[in-house]
Amino acid sequence: MFKKVLIAEDHESTNISVRKTLEELGVADARYVYYCDDALSWISNAVRNGQPYELLITDLSFEEDSYAQRLRSGEELIPAVKAIQPGLKIIVFSAEGRSAVVDALFKALPIDGYVRKARRDAQHLKEALQAVYQHRTYLSPDLKQVVRETNAYEFSEFDVAIISLLSQGLLQKDIPIYLQQKNIRPSSLSSVEKRLNAMKEAFDFSKNEQLVAYCKDIGLI
User: 126, 149, 172: which is the final residue of a domain?
Assistant: First the structure.
C-alpha cells in the first residue's frame, strides 16, 4: 500500500474521513492541506528533498476565502503537480457527478481514480486506493453506467446546438428559423425532429425536457 499520501481538501470533516480510511489501509504518512497552492508547494518541496509523495487525493471544488490563491480548483492543481512530478498517482474525491467532466479528467489530465462523494464513498475510496496502488484505474460504480452511456452516443455539433437552443427556452418549431439565420445546416424542422427523436430514443427519454436536463447533468451544455 502507499506509504506517503497528500490530501487536498478544504472541508475538515471530509479530511478526517479520508485520513481514517487511509489509516485502516495501513498508510503510515498521510498529510493534508486546505488549499491547492499549498498542495503544489508541498509536492514540489517533497520532490526537491528526494522524498516525493506517492499519491495525491484531491477534491475539485475549493471554496474561496480571504486567502488569495493562484490555483483555485482541483482541475487546475492536477496539471500543475503533473508538471513537477509526472508519475504521481492521483485520485479525485469529489461530489461532481457530470460524466463529461469525469471523462475529461481521465482523458485529458489524466487521473488514476475518481470517487464520487455519495453513499458508500468510504468503501469506494478503499477500492480506489487498492486499484490505483496496483496500477489500475478506478471509477465509482455509480458513475460507470452514466459514462458508458454517454460515450456510447456521440453527440454531434448539430445535436449540441439543438439542445442548447432548447435549454435557452427556444421552442422546437422555432429552431429552424434560428439555424437559417446563423447559416447552420441542416436547418429544416424535419431534420431537427429526427435528431431529437434519435437522441431521446438512445437514452430512453420521452420528452425534450428530459434530454435537456440530462445534457446539463453530464456537462454537455
Answer: 149
Type of residue numbered 62: F
Per-residue pLDDT of the chain (221 residues; tens, 9 = 90+): 899 999 998 887 787 788 888 888 888 888 999 999 999 999 999 999 999 999 999 999 888 877 778 998 999 999 999 999 999 999 999 988 777 788 778 888 889 999 988 888 888 999 999 999 999 999 988 776 666 656 557 788 899 899 999 999 999 999 999 898 888 888 899 999 999 988 888 777 888 998 898 888 777 88
Q: Examine the domain organization and report whether 103 and 183 are in the same domain.
A: no
Cα angle, residue 213 at apex, residues 210 and 215 outer, rounded to 5°:
110
On whether the CB atoms of residues 126 and 105 are closer than 8 A, the answer is no
What is the span of the domain harbouring residue 166? 153-217
Amino acid at 205: F
Residues 100 and 207 in one domain: no
Q: Is 203 helix (H, G, I), strand (E, B) or coil?
A: coil
Instruction: Kindly give the pairing relationship between strand 4-8 and strand 29-33.
Output: parallel
The C-alpha atoms of residue 93 and residue 59 are separated, in whole angstroms, by: 5
> How far apart (Å, rounded) are the C-alpha atoms in residues 110 and 103?
10
Q: Specify burial of residue 30 (Cβ count, 10 A radius: 0-12, 13-18, 19+).
A: buried
> Is the model's pTM score more than 0.85?
no
Label the pairing between strands 4-8 and 55-58.
parallel
